Amino acid sequence: MEGLKHSHPEVYEYFSHGYHVFRRSDRFWAGLSTDLAIEQVLMRSLKTSGGLTRGRGMSEVQRTQWLLSMSASAAVNDSMQILTGIGFSTSEQHKEASDARMKRDKNDVITILSYLNDRDPFNENVQLRSIDTGIHADDKVNVYLAKQCGERIIESMENQNALEYTFKRYNQVITMSSSILPSIHNDITEVDPQLLFQRLTALADREPDTVTDAFRHELSTHPASLFDSSGLPRISNKSQLADTLWNLGNCGVSELPGHPVKYILDGGSLIQKIQWTKGTTFGQICDQYINYLQKKYPDCLIVFDCYTTGAFIKDCTHFRRSKGIISPDATFTSDMQFKSRKDILLANKNNKQNFINLLGQRLVENGYQILNAAGDADTLIVSTALESSLENDVVIVGEDTDLLVLLCFHQLRSDYDVFFYTETSKNARTWSTKSLKRVLGDRSEVLPVLHAISGCDTTSRLYGIGKSNAFSRLTKPSFCMESLQKFNTVDLQQNDVISAGLEVISYLYGGVPLEGLDLLRLRLYTNKSITGNKMVQVKSLPPTSDAASFHVMRTYYQCQEWINLNTNSMDPLCWGWTLRDNKLMPITSSLPPAPENLLKIIHCNCKSNCDNRRFTCRKHGLSCSVGCGQCRGTTCTNSSIEESESSGSDDTVLQ
């Protein structure tokens, strides 16, 4: 290449003007570098008909003959190019793409910009966070210092023997995913549930007490039956309970009463009714709501939630509904144009409260009654409806199953009824809560706790336990009814609450009295391992008694909120929640994911060949795995389980 200017001036001239690639076709982006083009030509000639790999053989004589004939073949190729008029020529090196390609590229850019615009990584919040989920990193995360960590590792390698040097785990950067993992002696350790199950199965015959103790732990980073992979509570399908109650029959009416009734609207449901159009002013958007109400409910009372009261037990639900969107505070008036998206603007609770204030003011000016709840609007809606039902029939318009549950529980024995109307286009229903209470009988007394323990806005859904199944199972046995009714008792001792709740959850998973969730987990795992042909999933097992205790406490707190209609004086921090970033988040568990002795078994730090019983994995009759510090389960003699006659002392080392 250094002599290219003199040996091949024409080629050098092309290179000097930026022509660095060859094109063998007219397709877009088909330019190839010279070395790649030569390689393709050689490989094509080797592997096509007449090449060395097509029956000619690969002996030294044949390879020599083939190489020496290449010059003659090249001469024939040149002659064919002259004959056909196809030869070497230059062309534009970077042709413009087609219109379709440019349009697709433009759409991709717009998609990326729209995504980043909704989740602005350059806003005023300087705390490290995931722009996808909005989750903030804690102080341990240092992944942004990856370069410094790498330089520190390189410095530690200087003047070291390459065969003896070992990488230390504490030098690794800590990501957001690893920062929430359990630690052993300040060492970040990822717990693989299936790997733990493998260890437990191998130890079952030798140490049955260890297995029993292990199932007191979740064997995963969080209770998988209560929380999803992101660590948030599992979402419940609340409408299943409404469908189950509706199918009981004789609890609905075909039309509302003809005489005057009192209409009460759920403000949260009302806000979602109207589509917002970009370019319209906020005043015009408010007018859309007013026009909607004047057509359907000219005389009504609207109850709105409050979104600026600090920490709230629904913080986790609001966080999940935001889908990671971080919307900045916005100041708007009636005359300002709406130029964003509705879901983005309302993802910020301050913006949502400001719009509620603006809409409420316009509604009052047009003669509507407005109530603003101090916390959850559901309890205020129900208490207002019960008070109004002393004088006339009441119709509550909303979509939340929580309202139906509360109305049925608090239904008064009066001459007037409270109707619950859901105006969804596909499945509009009008409930008579008086009729529903009559159909349910005593079961209406345990409806709030049944709804809460099987999953609502503040509690997790139990994996594999639907609301229909929970309703049919829990409302039959007498002992379950007694346990459920304890949740209606005010100021019940926490131990009594937990004891009653654990009995209920155990029964939902098919447990027997006095068995307990921990033994039930072990029994179900054993049965599934013996009878099933698939790997047992941790989420299919019941939660541990420790994790379930926090779920039960949250259930009791929510029931007291509903039963006392938001006059509950209990402290949520004492009933299953913790304060994190000024938000109330559920406590998952107080125990580590697994016993420490099992976590030690997960990986060894053998520096030799793992060939005797001094090493932890082989000592317990287990094969090394990817979690092992040095061999990674692939470079030692214990990569598959083998018996060894050697024995010695335990040499377990945790990285």
Automatic annotation (TrEMBL):
Source organism, top-level taxon: Eukaryota
Protein name according to UniProt: Tesmin/TSO1-like CXC domain-containing protein
Protein's organism: Pinctada imbricata
